[in-house]
Write a structure and sequence with these properties.
Elements (H helix, E strand, L loop, with lengths): L2 H15 L5 H29 L5 H22 L1 H9 L1 H4 L2 H14 L5 H35 L3
Length: about 150
C-alpha cells in the first residue's frame, strides 16, 4: 500500500470520528455556561452579604471566590466538571473555576506517585506558569503605575 493512500485513509478515518460542532453552537454554550457560573457566584456573594452584612465587600468577595473554587474542586473530584467542560468549553475554563479544575485534575492524576512528588509537584507544574505570569505582569503593571503616578 502506498504511503499517500495510507495517509488518505487515516485522514478519512479521523474525519469520520471527529465530532462535528458548529462555531455558533460552541460560542453559545460557552456564553451561557460561563454566564450561569458567574450568576451562581454572584448569588453566593449575595447570600454571604445577607448573612454577614458587617463584613466588608472585599471580605465577601474573598469568601465568594473561595467558595466557588472549593465547589469547582469538588465537582472535579466527583467528575461533574468534565461534563460541564465538554458542553461549555471556554465558558467553564475562563472563570476562576477552570483554574481550580486544572489544579485538582493534576493532583488527582498523579496521586499514585505520592503526596510530595506526585500530587504537590504535578499540581504546580500545571499551575506554576499561571502563577508566574500573574506575578510578573502584576509587577510590570505596578511599575508602569508608579512611573505614570510620578514616583509615589
Amino acid at each position: 500500500m502506498e504511503k499517500n493512500d495510507l495517509n488518505q485513509r487515516y485522514e478519512d478515518y479521523v474525519a469520520s470520528v471527529t465530532p462535528k460542532t458548529g462555531t455558533f453552537h460552541s460560542l453559545w454554550n460557552s456564553f451561557w455556561i460561563g454566564g450561569v457560573t458567574c450568576v451562581l457566584a454572584q448569588g453566593i456573594g449575595d447570600i454571604y452579604y445577607a448573612l454577614f452584612p458587617h463584613l466588608g465587600k472585599d471580605l465577601i468577595v474573598n469568601y465568594t471566590s473561595m467558595t466557588i473554587i472549593a465547589l469547582a474542586i469538588l465537582f472535579t473530584g466527583f467528575g461533574f466538571f468534565d461534563v460541564i467542560a465538554r458542553k461549555g468549553g471556554a465558558g467553564s475554563f475562563l472563570p476562576i473555576t477552570g483554574f481550580a479544575n486544572a489544579m485538582a485534575s493534576a493532583s488527582m492524576e498523579f496521586k499514585t506517585e505520592g503526596l510530595i512528588m506526585g500530587t504537590s509537584v504535578k499540581m504546580f507544574t500545571v499551575v506554576g506558569p499561571v502563577i508566574v505570569n500573574g506575578v510578573v505582569w502584576s509587577a510590570v503593571a505596578g511599575m508602569i503605575n508608579l512611573l505614570l503616578a510620578g514616583g509615589a
